[in-house]
Amino acid sequence: MTTLKFAIAGASGRMGRMLIETVLNTPNAQLVGALDIPGSAQLGQDPASFLGKSTGIKITANINEGLKDADFLIDFTRPEGTLAHLEVAEALGVSIGSALLSVRRRVFDADDRPVQWLEGLYRPDRYEYQLEVSSIGDVDARVSMREEKARN
What is the pLDDT of residues 35-85, one digit of tens each? Predict the structure, then answer.
């Protein structure tokens, strides 16, 4: 049976905690993301710590990070929290909770310093992303050639 992957918005609230506990105790369900508002004292904490459990994920205010592995978002927040998700859905012309392709790209200079960080959400029915990577040199080489292809 397929495992359903959930993200919970409002993870630090009373209902968010109830939803987290329900997902963790449901066969074939997995908690893969937990969202809360910027400034929440719970950011960076494990969403199941109140149960004395560890999920290996952290509560975040970044919607891209919180949804990156999720099949479903359960949004049990105040209206202002829902509006942030509504904004993404409206901008892409999809329903709230629709599956999206999330792409994050980091670029480093020759001294391994970050110079670019991009995050994007895409409709999978209108956008395709492919990345081919091949190393140059031996196994320990730090040089890679990449060819990126995007169709939209």
Answer: 998 888 999 999 999 999 999 999 999 888 888 888 888 877 766 555 557
For 139, residues 6+ apart whose C-beta sits below 8 A from its C-beta are: none
Q: Both tokens of residue 24? A: 């963790």
pLDDT at site 107: 78
Domain of residue 54, residue span:
4-96
With CA atoms as reference, report the closest residue to 67 among 45, 90, 84: 84
Q: How far apart are the C-alpha atoms of 29 and 50, rounded to whole Å?
A: 19
- ∠ CA 104-5-66, rounded to 5°: 40
Question: Are 130 and 86 in a shared domain?
Answer: no
Helix residue ranges, H only, the chain: 14-24, 63-67, 79-92
Is the separation of the CB atoms in 12 and 75 below 8 Å?
Answer: no
Instruction: Extract the tokens encoding 97.
Output: 């909770």
51 plus 26 within the same structural domain = yes
Same domain, residue pair 82 and 107: no
